[in-house]
Amino acid sequence: MLKVNxxxxxxxxxxxxSDIAKKVKKxxxxxxxxxVISLGIGDVTRPLTPTIIxxxxxxxxxxxxxxxxxxxxxxxxxxxxxxKIAEFDFKRRGCDISAEEIFVSDGAKSDSGNIQEIFSDKxxxxxxxxxxxxxxxxxxxxxxxxxxDAPSSRWSDVVYMPCTxxxxxxxxxxxxxxxxxxxxxxxxxxxxxxxxxxxxxxxDYALKNRAxxxxxxxxxxxxxEDDVPHSIYECEGAKDCAIEMRSFSKNAGxxxxxxxxxxxxxxxxxxxxxxxxxxxxxxxxxxFNGASYIQQRxxxxxxxxxxxxxxxxxxxxxxxxxxxIRDGLTSAGFTxxxxxxxxxxxxxxxxxxxxxxxxxxxxNNAQVVGxxxxxxxxxxxxxxxxxxxxxxxxxxxxxxxxxxxx
Length: 406
Ligand code: PLP
Known about the structure:
It holds the Pfam family Aminotran_1_2. The protein has helices at about 5-10, 15-30, 50-65, 80-90, 110-115, 135-140, 195-210, 250, 275-285, 295-300, 305-330, 355-365, 390-405; strands spanning about 35-40, 100-105, 125-130, 150, 155, 160, 180-185, 210-215, 240-245, 260-265, 335-340, 345-350, 370, 370, 385. With about 400 residues, it is α/β, with parallel strands linked by helices. The chain has 2 domains: about 15-45 and about 305-405, Aspartate Aminotransferase, domain 1; about 55-305, Type I PLP-dependent aspartate aminotransferase-like (Major domain) (Aspartate Aminotransferase, domain 2). The strands form 4 sheets. The protein has a 7-stranded mixed beta sheet, sandwiched between helices. The protein has a 4-stranded antiparallel beta sheet with strand order 11-12-15-14. The site of pyridoxal-5'-phosphate has 14 residues, from α5.
């Protein structure tokens, strides 16, 4: 009997950003001529930088030449890229990660959604709340989350680690011991980045409880504070309990190019001593034929001196927007968080409005689109996410419009 995967049917509604897109489309159709500014989804807007573009062109040219043509690449990625990643992202920060432990992919969304496959369906997960929705949804699809309670927006078998203004958006250690702990720092959506001491307490907890941490560092490039680690492997013992995922999307603007990687240390094992590295390698080899040669050459160019300078320019461009949003909204009386080590500003909604009500209010009265905090988890209710990924002009206009409502 043909039957769909019943777990998919448990997912409430559509993906958050599809819901937003539908609402905005309807508004645009009904209010033609009104300019809507989106500070909603976390997509970049600046073009790729010259060094990356040149690497892409050169790689395309390679593909036209019989001597330099590349077909399927090595399973886990080209050595020219993996070696640069190991050197720049880890060794230079004092982390003992080798090129062999790096799995090149087409981005952190696929990796953070797929990584759960290598764990038993009996494993329990803990997530900081609110958080990037992919972690929970991919576990729903795999049948690990129990039943959904719509009034509380909670899954019965997920351990939530609330991040609210009361704990300064730093998750407390899980209330029940999970097997898998998802941490995203700097965090999407709150913009909060954990200090080394805070992250170390999670590492110590995971080691003590034989749990694994899935650490998403997609926003690492935005960190400016010295006590915030760029990699979980800066914490002592993390190689024995953590997997790290990274992306080229937010630092180098590869959202349309697609490139990312995951680090799985070779010595990482489950409670029976089974290697996570071998399973992820097996999964990669079976289900993925690699990011293209062209993408990986572009990734390599990120690590050149010119590439590093250019991407620092992109990050500072966006962080100028973060300042504009923070300052503007604060002056208008809003309480805002984030926007210091991350391109996200987490705004407290007015007392009388839920996240979605504030979404509608801004769309209808200021023609500004943001993201309702409740879409990122139950503790996101009463908050609203604005992103710094717009142009300076759009960001200034959006902020002026919001301020003028106050
Ligand atoms: N991880 C987090 C926390 C994100 O916010 C995003 C995108 O918004 C991603 C991963 C996706 O990254 P990629 O473009 O590499 O798939």
